[in-house]
């Protein structure tokens, strides 16, 4: 039975939540509108949720550049390879430290968990990458972040929760650990594998700082996020960067003008659309991973 | 007599050791598959995570990149002394603490409030929609988020438009150009990006609360607000305490991405924190030793905080984090 107080409370709550959703979505929708609006017209301001003079011009300009295709390719490669390789490695270690009889179960676990609490810091890590000859290489995106302790713990908790009888009967049948891992544990762990793969994929897709550190002078290894970062930095400092200045140059001689504002909006959408399209369908995995990680 | 028994004891010990070694080797052979699965990655973790700690020695040297380790000049605590007498670094320290504290308080209050309010929604479809939308910014990169924040706060952005329209300000404000606003902008950006995500854990805690308590309170005539205050919030208490302690442990880890990306020449006195300082000195000015000293200071303080927070948590009976 709903009282008067309930009605007031519920109405206020729904209004508040609606405002919150607008607050969350507006900045993004606004950029979509600007990216679809004529660039010179956008400069006048007043574009909110809907383009005033609709055009695909900004997108055409962005996708005309060879640099953007290179950046998209690198972003996709590091996302796919990073998630695939990271997943396999994390799962393997997680399987081993989930075995009660494993002789180094405790020490290996501690060695990994310790990395959550300290790190050598920026400069020593940078010099290590230099000494390992990883600077200027694609693998500098994959190797240093191969296994995260957080993901390892999520996976271990899941594997420990699998019924023990499966392992026992497989062992009686003479199956070795590798066989059990690939044939039994991996197929049974699909939910947690999806969760961790998503965590790693989102991390990889969103990274820009390692590009900035290690590969800023390698035009063929930059990522979408890094190109957007350069545009962002240029718009506040107006110094010339590769892609941003290329846009500026092409803009001056062109009848279809683009401006830093419209290019920034367009790149923002390009860099985030893959994630926006995917995350609503995968959120239950993320949520599960969060709660699983917090339990331990 | 005594020596005789000593000899006997030592032979037994030796036998035991030999036996121990044998058992060890047999176990290794038995578990070789598990060893193959872990040893390469233990080596990996030592190279990529532990080896860089050796680089802390740089903080006590005047490090020159082209010179071998044995020929580096040792300078003791020179760089640390410089840092703590440098006005710029003291400002950086102030910024780090202020940004973290603001983020901590704002982050907690907003996430808990959001979780409570989402829990009170009765329409399941609306509830799911709100949750999905509130997660969205969490999945965006900080580069995208910074682009959105700077666009919203620009001269012709929505914030200025709304404030002008309401007559609250007379002239547009260049929000990111005024240092004093930076901490607030940073805190608001963090809330926007992570409040939905951070609420997940509190919603999970709320879902564990026994529903009968609510029924009983209803019969006793407790109002909606009273039920929230006396049942929902106490039900989240242990999660709140654990997360609060963990976050206090990470107090110096205010992140660097928003500060770096939203920072500019006009707000640098308020935006620059330890991590940004390290990037600027280390990567842009090649002062490796000074940057490492600053980074090392941060990590050491963080570890002390973390241990203190953990033992506090154990004392309060909430269980440790590790």
From TrEMBL, chain A:
- Tell me which UniProt keywords the record has, alphabetically: Cell membrane, Membrane, Transmembrane, Transmembrane helix, Transport
Q: Cross-referenced InterPro entries, in alphabetical order?
A: MetI-like, MetI-like_sf
KW Metal-binding (keyword) present: no
**Highest taxon of source:** Bacteria
Annotated PROSITE patterns: ABC_TM1 (PS50928)
Q: Does the keyword Transmembrane apply?
A: yes
Provide the protein's localization: Cell membrane
The UniProt transmembrane annotation reads: 12-29, 67-96, 108-127, 139-159, 180-205, 263-282
**Biological process per Gene Ontology, one example term:** transmembrane transport
What is its membrane topology?
Multi-pass membrane protein
Can you cite an annotated GO cellular component? plasma membrane
List, for all copies, the residue spans of the domain called ABC transmembrane type-1: 72-282
Q: Which family does it belong to?
A: Belongs to the binding-protein-dependent transport system permease family.
* Protein name as catalogued: Putative aldouronate transport system permease protein
Recorded source organism is Gracilibacillus ureilyticus
UniProtKB/TrEMBL annotation, chain B:
Family stated for the protein in its record: Belongs to the binding-protein-dependent transport system permease family.
Q: Which residues cross the membrane?
A: 33-51, 97-118, 139-159, 229-252, 285-308
Q: Which GO terms describe its biological process?
A: transmembrane transport
- The answer to keyword Phosphoprotein applying to this record is no
Q: How does it sit in the membrane?
A: Multi-pass membrane protein
InterPro entries for the chain: MetI-like (IPR000515), MetI-like_sf (IPR035906), UgpAE/MalFG_permease (IPR050809)
Q: Which SUPFAM superfamilies does its entry note?
A: MetI-like
Protein name per its UniProtKB record: Putative aldouronate transport system permease protein
Asked if the Swiss-Prot or TrEMBL record annotates the protein with the keyword Repressor, the reply is no
> Which keywords does the record carry?
Cell membrane, Membrane, Transmembrane, Transmembrane helix, Transport
* An example Gene Ontology CC term for this record: plasma membrane
């Amino acid at each position: 039975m709903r009282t008067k107080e309930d009605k007031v409370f519920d109405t206020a709550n729904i209004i508040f939540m609606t405002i919150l959703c607008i607050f969350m979505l507006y900045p993004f929708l606004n950029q979509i509108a600007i990216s679809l609006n004529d660039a010179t017209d956008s400069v006048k301001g007043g574009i909110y949720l809907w383009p005033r003079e609709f055009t695909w011009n900004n997108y055409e300009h962005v996708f005309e550049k060879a640099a953007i295709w290179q950046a998209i390719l690198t972003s996709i490669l590091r996302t796919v390879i990073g998630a695939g390789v990271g997943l396999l490695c994390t799962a393997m270690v997680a399987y081993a430290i989930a075995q009660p009889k494993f002789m180094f179960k405790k020490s290996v676990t501690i060695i990994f968990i310790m990395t959550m609490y300290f790190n050598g810091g920026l400069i020593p890590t940078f010099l290590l990458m230099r000494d390992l000859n990883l600077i200027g290489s694609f693998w500098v995106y994959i190797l240093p972040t191969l296994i995260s302790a957080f993901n390892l713990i999520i996976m271990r908790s899941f594997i420990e929760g699998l019924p023990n009888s499966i392992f026992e009967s497989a062992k009686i049948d003479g199956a070795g650990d590798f066989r059990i891992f690939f044939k039994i544990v991996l197929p049974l762990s699909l939910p947690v594998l999806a969760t961790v793969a998503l965590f790693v994929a989102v991390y990889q897709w969103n990274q820009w700082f390692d590009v900035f550190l290690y590969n800023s002078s390698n035009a063929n290894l930059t990522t979408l996020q890094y190109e957007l970062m350069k545009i962002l930095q240029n718009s506040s400092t107006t110094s010339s960067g590769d892609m941003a200045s290329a846009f500026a140059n092409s803009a001056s001689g062109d009848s279809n003008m683009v401006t830093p504002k419209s290019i920034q909006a367009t790149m923002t959408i390009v860099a985030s659309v893959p994630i926006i399209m995917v995350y609503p369908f995968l959120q239950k995995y993320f949520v599960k991973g969060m709660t699983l990680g917090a339990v331990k | 007599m005594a020596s005789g028994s000593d000899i006997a004891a030592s032979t037994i010990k030796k036998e035991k050791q030999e036996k121990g070694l044998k058992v060890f080797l047999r176990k290794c052979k038995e578990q070789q598959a598990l060893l193959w699965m872990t040893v390469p990655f233990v080596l990996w973790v030592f190279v990529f995570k532990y080896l860089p700690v050796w680089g802390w020695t740089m903080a006590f040297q005047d490090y020159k990149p082209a010179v071998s380790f044995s020929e580096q000049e040792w300078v003791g605590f020179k760089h640390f002394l410089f840092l703590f007498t440098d006005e710029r670094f003291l400002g950086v320290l102030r910024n780090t603490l202020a940004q973290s504290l603001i983020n901590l308080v704002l982050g907690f209050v907003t996430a808990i409030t959001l979780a409570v309010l989402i829990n009170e929604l009765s329409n399941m479809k609306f509830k799911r929609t709100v949750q999905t939308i509130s997660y969205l910014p969490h999945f965006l990169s900080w580069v995208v988020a910074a682009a959105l924040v700077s666009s919203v706060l620009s001269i012709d952005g929505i914030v200025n438009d709304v404030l002008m329209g309401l007559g609250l300000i007379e002239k547009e404000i260049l929000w990111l150009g005024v240092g004093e606003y930076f901490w607030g902008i940073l805190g608001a950006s963090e809330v926007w990006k992570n409040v939905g995500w951070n609420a997940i854990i509190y919603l999970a805690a709320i879902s564990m609360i026994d529903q009968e308590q609510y029924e009983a309170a209803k019969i006793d005539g407790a109002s909606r607000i009273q039920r929230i205050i006396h049942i929902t919030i106490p039900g989240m208490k242990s999660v709140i305490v654990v997360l609060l302690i963990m976050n206090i442990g990470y107090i110096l880890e205010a992140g660097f991405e928003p500060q770096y990306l939203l920072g500019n020449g006009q707000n640098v006195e308020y935006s620059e924190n330890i991590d940004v300082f390290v990037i600027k000195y280390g990567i842009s000015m090649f002062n490796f030793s000074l940057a490492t000293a600053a980074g090392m200071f941060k990590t050491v303080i963080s570890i002390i905080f973390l241990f203190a927070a953990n033992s506090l948590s154990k004392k309060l009976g909430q269980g440790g984090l590790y």
